[in-house]
Fold this sequence. Notes:
Elements: E1 2-5, E2 8-11, E3 14-16, E4 24-25, E5 32-42, E6 45-48, E7 51-54, E8 57-64, E9 68-71, E10 81-88, E11 95-99, E12 113-119, H1 120-131, E13 137-144, E14 148-149, E15 159-162, E16 172-183, H2 199-236
Parallel strand pairs: 9-15, 10-12
Antiparallel strand pairs: 1-2, 2-3, 3-4, 4-14, 5-8, 5-13, 6-7, 8-10, 11-12, 11-16, 13-16
Amino acid sequence: MNDRTDGASIVDGRMTLPGAAGAFVQDVARPLAFAADGLVAISGHEWRDGVLHDAARIEGHVRPDGATLARIDQAGPAQDLSLTIRSFPGDSAPLLRLSFPVGAQGDLDARLAAELFLPQPLFAGLRQDLAEGRASSLSLTATTNLWLREGAGDEEPPVFHFAPETDGRPAQAHGRVQSISWRPAEPTAEGFLAPGQSDQDSEEPEDLVAEQLRRINWSLKQVLIILVFLMLIVALK
């Protein structure tokens, strides 16, 4: 099979580009992992073609976990992506889309965006757990149509490349989510220093108690010495 993008040729699953060394391949056995945090539930509605639609979503930030996103022979995008989680009817596997969004003036946003589409029951469960404080961070793995440099299967961390633009359209990538999980914020362990508190601050109460005990002991010693002198005077009389 021979397919083409702008300046790229794809033959039998191998993509080559003029001026780029080597070839690129897709590997479904190498899932891409992400870690997300800063999740916030957003409620709202929108009108499309005169019809009211539910625009409820969850927004946050997501980044590759143990991998890097790149563009072939171009400056790589920032690894901190904006994240939007939406729902869709049914119970099929969640889907992932990575893209460079178009701004209000039609120009491409330099920041890569991630969109996660969850079946409605899963989205509702995540939204409820988020409201109840049980979803501070989220992890997922997905198989995508991103490209790996041929022969770099053992490269760590792996570098996943976007295909070049097609017919002037910005590069996008799609994936099917294999696993997803979320967890509450880590509890603060007792004995850990509070933010902004130094070791010296934490030791001050103990030092103060020790100093007070030393003063009490010194006072008791003085009282005992006076009593001994009084007893000695009485004995001499």
